Amino acid sequence: MSDIQRVKQLLDGKIELDELEMDTELYEMAESIYGREALDEMGVIAPERPPDSIVQPNGDSNHKVQIPLPDIPLLDDTDSQPKKRWGLRILLLMIIVAGGLAGAHFA
Question: How do the domains of the chain map onto residue ranges?
Answer without folding.
Answer: 3-42
